[in-house]
Amino acid sequence: MLSRTADHLFWMSRYTERAENTARMLNVSYETSLLPQSAAMAQEGWKGLLSISELIPAYTARYGEITPAGVLEFMVRDDGNPSSIVSCLRAARENARAVRGALTTEVWETQNQTWLELCRLLKGDGFERDPGQFFEWVKYRSHLSRGVVLGTMLQDEAFHFLRLGTFLERADNTARLLDVKFHAVQSDFHGTAREAGNGARRATPEADFYHWSAILRSVSAFEVYRKVYRDVITPERVADLLMLRRDMPRSLHASLHEVADNLAVVSNGQSAETQRKAGRLLADLRYGRIDEILATGLHAYLTQFLDRVNELGAGISRDFLVPSPH
After folding, report:
1. What are the phi and psi torsion angles at 213 (to 5°)?
2. Which of 41, 143, 212, 252 could bond to 37 as cystine, CB 3.0-4.6 Å?
3. pTM score over 0.85
4. Distance of CA 303 to CAs 88, 149, 175, 289, 298, Å?
5. CA dihedral 117, 119, 122, 124 (to 10 degrees)
């Protein structure tokens, strides 16, 4: 396959996944902001959302003080923000248009229709009237895009580059979300890990419940958590579910499993080192234990994980794709 074609496919799926992840985080932040809480706590929530995408400097340069309306505008409509929903869905559609011949009609029409409908939605007042419904629409279009790829594409190299982009982006986003949200809670996780090891159970205050359930909801894991653990929501179990469980679709383990599998299928003469790094990262997640990770420090672990995922992305670009400005 031409490296330019692979590049467009890879980034088309990454941008679609990024738009969905942005919508998920905005939706949870918006719903959480409606709960009774202090103004300072509410602002911390919106600030946390910007820091997940490392966008605080870019936001403050354009809007100044962090406000709910400002963050929503910046993360949804702002053309100057490459991580905004409008920027991501435009980029996804442009990449799809560039490789129209490598896609099925259904895949192209799904991408194109998403962009046209987004323009129509943002011209009206639908977003302001009901942000929650708008975010659900973005998630639905991303689900539709993935489903149409699975249901209509020949499972050749084009298909595998689409899958690679999706799951590399998902691993990055889940790790960022966990890192920022765990960091925001003033808890001693070293102590938590020791208590968990000793079989002690910590009481979870009401505020804690909303915090952890918001994290779970942002990755569609609240019902899954209830099914798996059938108990109160605890930080160590949230981390375990979203990092180490292979059967949780948006976990780090599940995402890296897909990355490694798809890399193996498209491997070429120069990709051995990238495959080795993917395999090693997957092995760390497959055989990791959450009490050990928490005992040594979750922030340090996730920071290192993000560095390794970025390295993996750079390796994929070097081995398969054209140098691009993404």
Report:
1. -65, -30
2. 41
3. yes
4. 24, 32, 8, 17, 8
5. -80
Instruction: Identify the residue whose tokens are 């560039």.
Output: 98
Q: Where are the beta strands (DSSP E) in 99-217?
A: none
Q: At which residue do the structure tokens 């897909």 appear?
A: 258
Residue pair 56/44 in contact by the 8 Å Cβ criterion: no
pLDDT over threshold 70, residue 239? yes
Those residues whose C-beta lies under 8 Å from the C-beta of residue 300, and which sit 6 or more positions away, are none
What tokens does 216 get? 């779970």
Residue type, 98: A
Alpha-carbon span 301 to 303, nearest angstrom: 6
Question: pLDDT digit string (tens) for 61-87?
Answer: 999 999 999 999 999 999 999 999 999
Mean pLDDT of the chain: 89
Residues in CB range of 204: below 8 A, 6 or more apart = 212, 232, 233, 234
Cα–Cα distance measured from residue 273 to residue 284, given in angstroms and rounded to the nearest whole number: 17
Query: Using CA atoms in the order 202, 206, 210, 215, what is the torsion angle rounded to 10 degrees?
Result: -10
